[in-house]
């Protein structure tokens, strides 16, 4: 295993501050502690080459976990082994092997071109000139930013800047890359570019842990989904299993030549009567298999139009969040 997390716990301890003057004075003598357990015994195994979609509602403990895995934060207890390193113990050596991209935080320098920041990283990571050149040329070509990297960062569009953030994170050829909301604020085309870049890097063997609230990122990229809620893992499996989480449900839109009636049919629920002849249905295929449903529809109605979809992933994730 490339990443191994065992019974990871993190409790933050803070002190309650009084709101009144008297409370403030009193707190100088006796401070009331507040404990928040952000991560409550997390186990996680990630193999080389996986792209993990790491999801959870606000306050679930995602950032806390990522901070521990990148070595920024010490856990309260538990073990983490990433490529043989314990991140918070051997941070200097460890960071040579990892990269990170934060959608909301820049690693570039505002007033200078990204190219200067790339050279700064070359010095920090002590990269050989030849390797640095080769990697830089490859990344610049892949992301199509030959002109962009020469302009001051403050003049770049968000999409251009994000591409440069990726170059910054990948120059030292890390094996594991942590992505935190890497497509936040990007338009569809820039998102696609970022997605295909991540996929290309993944084909070359890079493992990604992707934290995002954007389910488009997850659907496009993740080979496995890990969901945490209130500091505990509530789901860890493939996208296929996730899609079947609420049972084998399908959403059927159907337009018939005359008004259709669905009352009393086992496994069929009307979600929306779009118009007299158009209906949106939820089909429970455990109770009424798709082939039987289609046969029944053909016997009863003349179908003008029909579409059959899986449940929207948003709905499934919402149910998983509620699980805890
Ligand atoms: N430095 C801190 N001191 C005290 N409590 C903290 C601290 N950092 C985080 N917490 C608390 O720990 C819990 C988990 O927070 P965390 O930031 O890890 O969640 P998250 O899943 O990343 O949320 P979001 O999606 O909103 O970024 C929250 O209840 C939060 O208030």
From TrEMBL:
Keyword field: ATP-binding, Nucleotide-binding, Transport
Domain ABC transporter per the UniProt entry, residue ranges: 3-255
Keyword Heme annotated: no
GO MF annotation terms: ATP binding; ATP hydrolysis activity
Pfam families: ABC_tran
Protein name per its UniProtKB record: ABC-2 type transport system ATP-binding protein
InterPro entries assigned: AAA+_ATPase (IPR003593), ABC_transporter-like_ATP-bd (IPR003439), ABC_transporter_ATP-binding (IPR050763), P-loop_NTPase (IPR027417)
Keyword Endoplasmic reticulum applies: no
SUPFAM superfamilies: P-loop containing nucleoside triphosphate hydrolases
